[in-house]
Amino acid sequence: MPGVIREIVWLGRPDHFAAILDHPGSPCDIVVADRSGVVRSVVPDSGLDVSLFGFQRIEWRSFDGVPIDCWRRTSRRPKGAVIAFHGGPALQARPRQSSTFDALVAAGFEVFDVNVRGSAGRGEHYRGLDDGPLRVDAVHDALYATDLIAELTEGVRLCVLGVSYGALLAANVVASRDFVQSGVGISGLYDLEDYMSTTGGSRIESIEEYGVSSDCWKAVTPKLDSPRAGRMLIVHGGVDENVPIEHARRVASTWGCGVDFLTFDREGHGVHSAENKALLDGAVASWVSHRLNDGVHRE
Q1: Which among 26, 154, 164, 221 counts the fewest CB atoms within 10 Å?
Q2: Cα(265)–Cα(60) distance, rounded to whole angstroms?
Q3: Which of 265, 263, 264, 260 is nearest to 287 (CA)?
Q4: 70 within 8 A of 145, measured Cβ to Cβ
């Protein structure tokens, strides 16, 4: 039962606990263990061979020497690659199951799931390396990782995808890198000044992450003209309370015409119902395929 521990729950005795394991073969496994070393699964094994998923961990040193990494999901004869940025900001890309990534791999795309500075998994100091005025360094990490992945994939066409805060990074890449053909934002945060002056400014955790300086917010807000905005797909829930859909609509209006919008009226922050999740996965894979279908290699 391979996997990465997501959470440990003690079961009323100091020698008895349950662990939730993430791995790419299924949404999760739950195992129970005790001091004697006996481990038993309480969720049936998916039976999938994890090696079939072609996972590879890659680590680099960013522009200033800070370590960043990604998990690469390979695809046979890839016709393109998708570079993904997680939300949080202090979450972590892991080799876990993702139906959206599975759909992209099935459609013929490699997926690079990136951890920039500020991600979890490397201790409290690392998690704070993007706080306040340091946020711009995380954007530079995203750009640096994109450049390295572009070299690694040897000319295949590229798309970026970001979830929540990760959409801010993805949009910055689209704004700054002409060789990136498209970008997808899911429940995205795109403009820190707009967000902090409306929703985020009332939340202590947002102030700790993003600071109180409008100059710092503006420094990491992507500026997309109409041609670049036409490369973006914005996906948002109609009742999102974390990043309200009005934020995405205001940002799209400032970018100009060309932004594709997909709304799930009854979804909040993220897309969670099985029916809507299936629609999302199919729509993203189809949209990326359409955007990258005019040739395998970029110019």
Answers
A1: 154
A2: 40
A3: 260
A4: yes
The CATH number of domain 54-296 is 3.40.1280.10? no
Determine the distance from the C-alpha atom of residue 72 to the mean position of all C-alpha atoms in its chain, rounded to a whole number.
13
Distance separating alpha carbons of residues 107 and 97, to the nearest angstrom: 16
- Return the number of other C-beta atoms located less than 10 Å from residue 173's C-beta: 23
Per-residue model confidence (pLDDT) at position 28: 62
pLDDT recorded at residue 199: 77
pLDDT given at position 295: 45
pLDDT along the chain (299 residues), means of 10: 67 70 63 70 54 77 97 85 95 88 92 97 95 95 97 91 97 94 95 86 76 89 80 95 94 83 96 95 95 61
Residue type, 210: Y
Burial of 139 (0-12, 13-18, 19+ CB in 10 A): buried
- Answer yes or no: are the C-beta atoms of 276 and 267 closer than 8 Å: yes
Which one, of 61, 260, 251, 57, lies nearest residue 159 by Cα?
A: 260
Q: Which residue has the tokens 């629609």?
A: 279
Tell me the three-class secondary structure of 47-95, residue by residue.
CCCHHHHCEEEEEEECCCCCEEEEEEECCCCCCEEEEEECCCCCCCCCC
256, 176, 140, 233: CA torsion to nearest 10: 50
Entry pTM? 0.86
Residue type, 150: A
Domain boundaries, the chain: 4-42, 54-296
